[in-house]
Structures are given as structure tokens and as C-alpha cells.
Request: fold
Amino acid sequence: MFHYTIETDQTIIQTIEKLELHLKEEKFGVLWHLDMQEKLGEKGVELEQHYHILEVCNPVEAKRVLNENALIGYFLPCKITVYEEQGKTKIGLPKPTALIGLVDNGVLKGIAEDVEKRLISCIDKAAMS
Reply:
């Protein structure tokens, strides 16, 4: 699977707040938080679904992958989505290993595996705390 997605009983706002705390522990910062419902509403398009996209980055890891292959910038920053579907809050991300798998490089694969493990841990903790 190209993604990792789980459900939580928490609200979207609670989930995002907890996620941001756990990301900070792993030295990831939220560069941008896009509230799709709000943004589309500004454009006159109504989206009934609550959908948030967080772009997150660990600067040390970003430097490592960019030094290895500048094309990896196409995959940066990492995205984590928090959204509502059928009354449940879902949280997930495209797996960095799936994206890096498009580039045949063992060093990058190892970095992607580490980043993925850390991001999934943050998601799991946010969903359960």
C-alpha cells in the first residue's frame, strides 16, 4: 500500500493538536496547514467534508535526502492528512518508502524507512493519546 491510514475517536482539532506535539518530539515541524474546506469555500466551492493537509518537515532529514539526490525535492515536504469520513476522524500519510521506491537508491531507501517509522509513530500516538 502506498499509504498508512488509521481511525481515531478524537475530533479533527484534537488529533491535529496532538499530532503537532508528537511531531515536535521527532524534530518535525508543520510548515503549512491547509484547511481544504475553508480554502475551497474562499473560492466559492462548498466542500462538506472536513479535510486538513499538514506539510511537515525535519530539516536535517530534508538536507540528507536532497544532498543524496536533488530530485527527492519533488516528494518534499511530507504530507499528513487528517479528515472526516463517515463520522470518523482519519489520519494518514503517503508512505515515504513508496515514494522513494521510485528512485533506485539504497541510501535514500534507508532514510525513507527511518522517516516513515517516525511519522507513523507520531500518527499512532496522536490517534491514541
Summary: The longest strand covers residues 78-85.
